[in-house]
Every structure is written in C-alpha cells, then in structure tokens.
C-alpha cells in the first residue's frame, strides 16, 4: 500500500500542491518527467503492476481494507482504485456515491449547499468531453474540496479533483455504448483512440448522444392586486430532444525532463429543443369583491374560471470550438512554472413560436435569438519551494470575452434588441503553505478586477451600462493530524456577480399573463464560509457556518398599470445565515461494504416585502445509505436509498423526495469487457414540488423530469491504458457563463 501512495504523489504537478495537499513537494512537470533514467521508469512500471495485482488479491482475500472515504486537510477524499466504485461504468455513476453530492431537479449533480463543483482532471480544468470518455478504472481517488484556496476563481464554491493512474506506453482504445430507458430512450456511443510513448501522447475522441426526456411542470400563481385576487395556472407537458456531437484531439510532448508542451482542440455541435403543450387557466376577481381561497384550489373558486390552450416549439443550435496550449517547466530544484493559453468561439441560435387559443380567438408569438462570442484567456502559475516543508504559490490570469447578439419577439412589449458585451478579468493570487510536526497550514489572498460592458445597439438606450468590480478574497486553513484523529479548520470568501441577462433590462415572454424582466441595479453576492472537519476511524464529520450578503433571488411583482399581469425579476436581499452539520460512516464487513451519511442545514433569513416582514427560517436535511456487495467471478451488486426533506431554501419551500436505486455489473477478459445495469428512482418518487410566499404573489410549481430510468452500459477496451494531457483549461469559467 505504501507503493500506491508514492505513485499517487508522483502523479501530482505543481498545480496539485495547493492548500489541500501542500505537504507534497512536487515539480512543475508531468509524472513521467520526474524520472531521470530509463531503468527507473521501467522499474517503477514493473513495481506498479505488481502492486496492482497484490491489491486486487487483497481486496478479495483479506479482512482488513483501506477506507473508501477519508479526510485530507479540509478535503473529503474518495478512494476509487480497488474499491467497488472502480466497477461503475461511467464517471456520473461514481459521483452519485460521493458523500456530500446530491441530485438536483433536472438530474444534474451538485455539492450540498455549494452548487455545481468545478471539476479538475489531474489538475487540468476538465471539459465535458474529457469527463464523458474518462475510464473509471484509471481513477485513483477523487477529492471534494469545499474550501478551495486562493489559486481558484473567486466564483468557485467547491472543487472536485480527479487523480488518475500513470500513463502506460502503447496503443490503446475504448468503445462504450449505453441505452437509458425512461418514458423515452436516451442512447450514447463513444470511441477513444490513442498512442503513447515515453515522450509523446496523441489521443482522439468522438462521442454522440441522443438525449430525450419528458417533463411535466404544472404551475399556479395567486396574485393579490389592488382590485382583488387573480389566479393564473398552467399544466405543462414537454418533450425534450437534444443531439450532441463532441470531438477532442490532444497532443502532449515531453521535450525533456524539465519541459513539457501540448495542444488540445475540442468541438461541440448541439441541436435540440422542446415541444410543449399547455392548458392554461385564469380567474379574475369575483364581481362582489369577495376573498378567494388562498390555497388555490380550483373547486373552491368564487370567480369564473376560464381556460385556453397553448403550444410552443423551441429549437436551438450551438457550435463551439476551443483550443488550449500549455507549457510546464522546472527551472531549478525549487522553482517551477506553468503557462496556459486558450481561445474559444461559441455560436448560439434558437427560435420559439408560441400559439395560444381561447375559444375562437388565437394569439401567435414568435421569439428568436442568436449570439456569437469569442473568448481569449491566459494563466500563469509559479511554485517556489522555500524548504522541504514550506512553499509559496503565486500567479495570475487574464481573460477577454467579446460577443454580440440579438433577441426579437412579435410581442408588443418585447420588440427587438441588439446588444454587444465586452468582459475583461484580471486576477492575481499569492498563497503560502507549510508544516511543522503534526500541524500543517496555508493562507492565501486573491485579487480580481473585472470590467463588464453592455451596449444596446438598437438605439441610444438607458440599458447601456458599464460595471467595474475590484475585490480581495482571503482564505486560510490549518490542520492537525493525530494518530486516531484528524482536525481541520478553514475559511473562504467567494463572490457571484450578476450576469448580463440579469442586468440588461430586457423583457422575456413567459405567457400572456407573465413576463420576466431584468434588474440593472443588482449587486454582487458575497459569501463567507468557516468550516471545521474531523475524522475518527470510520467516521467523518463537518460543521460549517455560512453568511451570504446581497443574495440574488426571484421575486414576483404586480405592475399597477396592468393588474391582470404579474412579472418576475431579480432582487438583492439582506444577509442569509446557514448552519450545517454533516456526518458520514462507512465500513467493510466481508463482501458487504455499507456507507451512510446524513446532513442538516438550518437557514436564518427574513425579508421586508412591501412593509410585511416575512420569515423564511427553516431546516433542510437529507440522508442516504449505499450498499455494495462484491461477489465471486467478478460480479458486483449495489443498492442505495436516499431521502431529502426538501425544507426551506431561500424563499422557496420544497416538499420531501426519496430515491431507491440498484445496480449490477460483470467483467470479463481481465476487465476489458464490462456489462453494467442500473435502475434509478425505482418507485418514481423524484418529484420536486416547491412553493413561494410573497406579499403580492403565492407561487407553486412541480418539476417532474422523469428521473426514473433503466440503463444498460457495455464497455470494451482495446488496452487498459490512457492518454496524457496536462494542459489547464483557463477559459472554462467564461465558457460556463455562456
């Protein structure tokens, strides 16, 4: 097992040595380049192969096992290699079992309380194409970092670092197909081919996905206007279809043991949309002016209920290209650097015709939009080793995003808007890390300057705006490692700046009774988090305090000049305080490996809504219980259960949800062929019901994305090797904003 630890340390580059693993003094070049002689490379490969075989034998025959989950500094580490997780067919299947991850209403995964994480693959910011074809069996471990250091962007809430095994030489390949059945079918096919030598790595990937799912989304709003209460509702049924074509080519050249360069190209072609049918209804105040039922039950309505039908067809196209170049260098024993350059181009267009019929009357609305964006970015990272136990990391990044677009609608209120965006960001950071005995610590500071400019090209418009953000973001962490205990205390500040769509002043058509407008007065959201983590044997725990200033949320308003309509917009609110507690336990009993976790978050938040002080205090909690059964002849079974009480999140109250899922897989031919079956949400209980109470509007909604599914995955590997690409994607943050 000691050999595995050494190999894992060799895998890391200078970017790995952040606040989370600052004790490991590694170089700024790739894993292969730390070797000085061919014989040592060959000896390490032979030793690694031997260690793999011994570990596989131990996983079956011995009763003592390394834990699947552990704490490292302030990060939760999930060990994948030689665990049941290594037999999951895709990365998404693995991430579902990471403690602290949870599924959202549309099926995506996020970190509980911190949103979607930024994912790094061997400290390269990963793209969707790379994650799609990642071979799970090559993953050593996954770190969930809830307090990222100063080197990470200030908008980053959490980071997932995926560390993979070393690169082998030769030709390799992998084919994978899966079919997922819910109410409709989704299928995916991919092919990866590559060639690796001691100096050069060349890899290509192509993947195609036909993604389909149905949505049932009923909504209802009770609107309190000056002349009485109005009721608006809709029963929405949507059918979604999207075709993805993703490609990737990368070239990695180890020039010498001190220098490594590479280039990567990625392309994405996407076509998709939704056809939707709605039955809408509305009720005006009754003539007598009597109060209507605030519970919004149609059978108790006093006024006359009216109905009409609506249909819409939305179809979009996206084309994007991304080029990444990098240079890794080791200038001396104590100094290393990394440089990354990126260019990306993104084009989008979509159209949405809407037809609304009420009796013999018909109203047609056509909404269309298109946009073109270019992104240029660069990043430099430098590591200076002061001694074996002390180091300094510093660096900076710069990005430019330029684009223009056009939105148009046949609705009178919306009209046509042509606009141009110009966004530049400059950032610098400095971080120190050290250790003494059982103590280790780190402290960092990050500075960001962001200029955002929005120009309405249609006419001289008050919508034109320019904003400048200058902010400092401190962070620190301290860790105590004792024989039986692990303690960690960390602090982190982050920000979330409003997007152009939230600021621009545009109006978006929702229905004949509802519009969405932007708010050019929005301020950035600043978050402060203090986290304490502890581990004792098989148990891990966490306590976190979070303060959020100027939180941005949806609000509903009733314009005085149009009382039969209501609008939704964005608004900053006063501070929100959250108190979170988390506990995880896992153990091995022969062939059975159970793992249980539970977390609870209490929110303190109240808002002054037109003179009415509304309290949104409340708790949310969730729990899960995963079970893996390792059986003879390379069979594996899994059974999982999770429950979420929904609770109070911001201004929204959610109803409880629960999920039963199971899986089975079998491997042949030394792992080259694998067949996996999984069933998710067996009893169709993943329905997300939510309700919001405000002074003027009570809004309720159900989001049913049909998350229940049965999935069959077949994977065939030409060789159990992988390509090497050590470039960091410095433009991913800007791409995600689009």
From TrEMBL:
<feature type="region of interest" description="Disordered">
    <location>
        <begin position="347"/>
        <end position="368"/>
    </location>
</feature>
<dbReference type="Pfam" id="PF14905">
    <property type="entry name" value="OMP_b-brl_3"/>
</dbReference>
<dbReference type="InterPro" id="IPR041700">
    <property type="entry name" value="OMP_b-brl_3"/>
</dbReference>
<dbReference type="InterPro" id="IPR036942">
    <property type="entry name" value="Beta-barrel_TonB_sf"/>
</dbReference>
<feature type="domain" description="Outer membrane protein beta-barrel">
    <location>
        <begin position="341"/>
        <end position="716"/>
    </location>
</feature>
<keyword id="KW-0732">Signal</keyword>
<keyword id="KW-0998">Cell outer membrane</keyword>
<protein>
    <submittedName>
        <fullName>Outer membrane beta-barrel protein</fullName>
    </submittedName>
</protein>
<feature type="signal peptide">
    <location>
        <begin position="1"/>
        <end position="19"/>
    </location>
</feature>
<feature type="compositionally biased region" description="Basic and acidic residues">
    <location>
        <begin position="347"/>
        <end position="360"/>
    </location>
</feature>
<keyword id="KW-0472">Membrane</keyword>
